[in-house]
Amino acid sequence: xxxxxxxxxxxxxxxxxxxxxxxxxxxxxxxxxxxxxxxxxxxxxxxxxxxxxxxxxxxxxxxxxxxxxxxxxxxxxxxxxxxxxxxxxxxxxxxxxxxxxxxxxxxxxxxxxxxxxxxxxxxxxxxxxxxxxxxxxxxxxxxxxxxxxxxxxxxxxxxxxxxxxxxxxxxxxxxxxxxxxxxxxxxxxxxxxxxxxxxxxxxxxxxxxxxxxxxxxxxxxxxxxxxxxxxxxxxxxxxxxxxxxxxxxxxxxxxxxxxxxxxxxxxxxxxxxxxxxxxxxxxxxxxxxxxxxxxxxxxxxxxxxxxxxxx
Length: 311
What we know:
By secondary structure, the chain is α/β, with parallel strands linked by helices. The chain contains nine helices and 13 strands. This is Ornithine cyclodeaminase.
């Protein structure tokens, strides 16, 4: 996670500087209306790689004992065009989504942050907590989920994995003591109340990736410094941004800027201890490409992986 978080600096700096080629992803809606397929290409000249991720999402899958997401990533050499690797996109999606929240937390959360809350107990929730604990010395985390048994399982698993006290949240009121909140759900309504937020809290909102999906209360968006992974992507897909825009609660100028602009110092990060900051991510293909390239290089170094011939 630490290495991937560092790699995200390269990805987002290149994206905001126009040094990466990345069209807005293509989305196909799948019947019966609860699933979709996303196609996410990217080209990074700085690492000599071009790649594409194909990912499907189905919100009914967990009830069937299946992952919500299935994904594959293919990487090519950008000079020769030769295919280099086929990778598990599910694992890399979880890793890179956690890593970018780790980077956002490192840049935007208070240095004194010690408590966290995770809303949503899927694989994304796990890597969100891991990433936050990587960049801040978190001593206690609360977990929220609509299903109590999932919250209990998550708390036990992550306590052992991270050696951090992870507790099932006894009530939403515990948010008043939380320094970092991560939301990783497919919700279509806010998952917490704005009035419960502690001054100076930082929020990573990574679950909602469609206009009709929303995790963050509009009141929070209105009063927060909002940083996004990519303007074009969020203005096309992020319900957390689009819904307040439609209601004329904010304008497009309310977006403080992109994460890559914070990385390069073009725009400010946190400016006061009491400032509320929100990082809104819909996920971008350069994250996948840089993370997959990192995994590929580590695999070559360690001899892990299966060599295939296409001849």
